[in-house]
Amino acid sequence: MRINGSHHIFRKAGVEEKINIQKDGNKAKPYQIKQIRKIFLSYHLGREL
Fold first, then answer.
1. Burial level of 43, CB count in 10 A (0-12/13-18/19+)?
2. Which of 15, 30, 45, 49 is in Cβ range 3.0-4.6 Å of 40 for a Cys bridge?
3. Integer Cα distance of 18 and 3 in angstroms
4. CA distances (Å), 48 to each of 1, 10, 11, 45, in order?
5. Is the pLDDT of residue 38 over 90?
6. DSSP per position, 1-49
7. Chain segment 11-37, per-residue pLDDT in tens
8. Residues 2-39, buried b or exposed e (16+ Cβ, 10 A)?
9. Predicted pLDDT at 48
């Protein structure tokens, strides 16, 4: 994770895309959720249970 102003930028090894979230109170914006969901589904992330 890296913070650039009000943006939080996340990277993960093996994932080309960066996740860039602008802090807006305690809620992510709808387009940010869609982008993150697309990355999770594309790379099959979150299935290490």
1. middle
2. 45
3. 12
4. 20, 19, 18, 8
5. yes
6. -EEETTEEEE--TT--SPEEEE--TT---HHHHHHHHHHHHHTTTT---
7. 888 888 888 887 766 677 888 889 989
8. eeeeeeeeeeeeeeeeebebeeeeeeeeeeeeebbeeb
9. 60
Distance CA 40, CA 38 (A): 6
Contact between 45 and 35 under an 8 Å Cβ cutoff? The reply is no
Residue 3 vs residue 47, higher pLDDT: 3
pLDDT at position 34, please? 92
